[in-house]
TrEMBL record:
One of its GO terms (cellular component) is ATP-binding cassette (ABC) transporter complex, substrate-binding subunit-containing. SUPFAM superfamilies: MOP-like, P-loop containing nucleoside triphosphate hydrolases. It comes from Bradyrhizobium guangzhouense. It is a peripheral membrane protein. Residues 4-235 form the ABC transporter domain. CDD domains: ABC_MalK_N (cd03301). SMART domains: AAA (SM00382). PROSITE patterns: ABC_TRANSPORTER_1, ABC_TRANSPORTER_2. One of its GO terms (molecular function) is ATP hydrolysis activity. Belongs to the ABC transporter superfamily. The keyword ATP-binding applies. This is Sn-glycerol-3-phosphate ABC transporter ATP-binding protein UgpC.
Length: 346
């Protein structure tokens, strides 16, 4: 069993900067955990601490029931896959995969068995004699995965492994990694700043901001019920519409005077309609921009001047702007006045 547990983990760099400010995370055996957050939030630092590449200032990291704070990286039973692949250019695919095993003094026969098995799983069987320079980006990425697999680690650690790939390959490799992880059933921790990658890969999603965990849980549960405005605007694209319940138009509909909070409505939860549904919220918008992306259309509308928006967080819309996501390609004209409505607490 290889669960990974972080208990009140902190990291202060030698210059005094506190990059991790007390983080608790539990990853169960075989689970896929994704650390997501904006640049500088500390996700790589946290992953490197699990790997043993960065010291732990305080708190505990436990892998498979053993506190590893003082354990060398090589003895942690983990394998890390990096974004730059870190392949040896002069070595064949076979030797790239075999390298770590030879370093450990494993017998050649066993190395051959392991490399060939990994190559089969990764569909690299016909490429074992090639050099990395003779491979595509996706194939190189698979060799990097192969190097991790042959070690048969208890835990895989991924540091933005797909960020050097083009958009199409990224999606293909994302699906590959998930299938592979399910098949091998190895506990995994994956770092990305891409919220879509995070949503689609994670069993457990950890949303980080400023060295702290903002929210942790099932990705869809986080999407449905973001705990903070940061999470609400970071998870989901286009971002959730966040509006102050003090705004005149909204306050009058909510009814409860002094109910000063934030109302969050996902773009897909609005419909264009003149009706105000029971228990719903309706807004008047002037259409400012339209984006057609094929299966759906994003309508950007401006709200009335008197409405205030909550303080901007990363990924948030400019004040007074609302995004409505509608299926298909039919959309109102730019400049049109429209009414949109959403059911509250759906
Ligand atoms: P990115 O997505 O840009 O890689 P990240 O979330 O992985 O970001 P980290 O690399 O973990 O962020 O860095 C977290 C914070 O710690 C950043 O503010 C960074 O500037 C700081 N930091 C990283 N390494 C050091 C260091 N050696 N000394 C001081 N501060 C550091």
């Amino acid at each position: 069993m290889a669960n990974v547990t972080l208990r009140n983990v902190r990291k202060a760099y030698p210059n005094g900067f506190e990059a991790i400010k007390g983080v608790d995370v539990d990853v169960a055996d075989g689970q896929f955990c994704v650390l997501v957050g904006p640049s500088g939030c500390g996700k790589s630092t946290l992953l490197r601490m699990v790997a043993g590449l960065e010291t732990i200032t305080s708190g505990e990291i436990d892998i498979g029931g053993r506190v590893v704070n003082q354990v060398e990286p090589a003895d942690r039973d983990i394998a890390m896959v990096f974004q730059n692949y870190a392949l040896y250019p002069h070595m064949s695919v076979f030797n790239n995969m075999a390298y770590g095993l030879r370093n450990r003094g494993m017998k050649e026969a066993e190395i051959k068995t392991r490399v060939e098995e990994a190559a089969r799983v990764l569909e690299l069987g016909t490429m074992l004699t090639r050099k990395p320079g003779q491979l595509s980006g996706g194939q190189r990425q698979r060799v990097a995965m192969g190097r991790a697999i042959v070690r048969q680690p208890k835990v895989f650690l991924f540091d933005e492994p797909l960020s050097n790939l083009d958009a199409k390959l990224r999606i293909a490799m994302r699906v590959e990694i998930r299938k592979l992880q399910r098949r091998l059933n190895v506990t995994s921790i994956y770092v990305t700043h891409d919220q879509l990658e995070a949503m689609t890969l994670a069993d457990v999603l950890v949303v980080m901001n400023g060295g702290q965990v903002e929210q942790i849980g099932n990705p869809l549960a986080i999407y449905e019920k973001p705990a903070t405005t940061f999470v609400a605007s970071f998870i989901g694209a286009p971002p959730m519409n966040l509006m102050s319940t003090r705004a005149d138009e909204i306050k009058s509909q909510l009814g409860s005077a002094g109910d000063a909070g934030i109302l969050g409505i996902r773009p897909e939860d609005f419909v264009i309609t003149d009706q105000t549904p029971a228990g719903g919220v309706a807004l008047s918008l002037t259409v400012e921009a339209i984006e057609r992306v094929g299966a759906e259309t994003f309508v950007y509308g401006a709200r009335a001047q008197d409405e205030q928006r909550v303080a901007a967080t990363p990924g948030e819309l400019p004040p007074g702007e609302v995004i409505v996501r509608i299926p298909g390609t039919e959309a109102p004209a730019i400049g049109a006045r429209i009414r949109v409505a959403a059911i509250r607490n759906k």
